[in-house]
Amino acid sequence: MIDKIKVEEAVKMLLEAIGEDPSREGLAETPARIARMYEEIFAGIDESPKPILAKRFTCDNSGIVLEKDITFYSMCEHHLLPFYGKAHVAYIPGKEVVGLSKLARTVELFAKRPQLQERMTAQIADAIMSELDCAGVMVMVEAEHMCMTMRGVKKPGSTTVTCQARGEFEREDMKAAFYRMMGRD
Q1: pTM, whole model, 2 decimals?
Q2: CA 177/CA 105 separation, integer angstroms
Q3: Is residue 142 within 8 Å of residue 85, measured between CB atoms?
Q4: Same domain, yes or no, for 75 and 32?
Q5: Are 66 and 156 in a shared domain?
Q6: Both 166 and 85 in a single domain?
Q7: Which domain holds residue 24?
Q8: Catalytic amino acids?
Q9: Over the stretch 62-87, which tens digit does the pLDDT of each residue have?
């Protein structure tokens, strides 16, 4: 649960610390706006993927299910600047499948917290593997990090790619199948 009053106080202090007047017309409502925004963009902090992945359907499919190009926005925990991109999630069902929107919701849940891309990729893979009791999971996340593009090294357009494989996807032939489905063979 976001403490909006504390966020507002902190934003006022930050504005003062950088030499601004938090009471001037353009900034007077900024602390409240930031508090509301943080409530939205950090909504995944105390959430569990369990309820998201609970609704399943019986299915005899033992092939790969791939949901590509799931857009996400997250916040780098080192600089509190955005990183954003696409997640690609594949799994091999056991006896049940989950609705495709649930894969996107799982990505969103882990993105909506102060995050490291590497950790987020692993969290998505672990949640799907454990909750769906599937034969394997592979997750690839591709993102641009504003902490690298607008400050520091200043390399706009650079992309970081992270992958995590679990179960059957730890085999090289299954990884190759994933990359073929992604169009990257």
Answers
A1: 0.95
A2: 24
A3: yes
A4: no
A5: yes
A6: yes
A7: 4-41
A8: 76-79, 117, 145, 147
A9: 799 999 999 999 999 999 999 999 99
Domain count, the chain: 2
Length of the chain (residues): 185
Q: Tell me if 104 is assigned to some domain.
A: yes
Distance separating alpha carbons of residues 26 and 94, to the nearest angstrom: 55
As a whole number of angstroms, the distance between CA 66 and CA 19 comes to 50
The CATH code of the domain that includes 172 is 3.30.1130.10
CB atoms within 10 A of CB 66: 16
3-state per-residue secondary structure call for the chain: CCCHHHHHHHHHHHHHHCCCCCCCCCCCCHHHHHHHHHHHHCCCCCCCCCCCCCCEEECCCCCCEEEEEEEEEEEECCCCCEEEEEEEEEEECCCEEECHHHHHHHHHHHHCCEECHHHHHHHHHHHHHHHHCCCEEEEEEEEEEHHHHCCCCCCCCCCEEEEEEEEHHHCHHHHHHHHHHCCCC
> pLDDT for 29-57, tens place per residue?
999 999 999 999 999 999 999 999 999 99
CA distance readout (Å), 180 to 28, 74, 98, 111, 176: 52, 27, 23, 26, 6
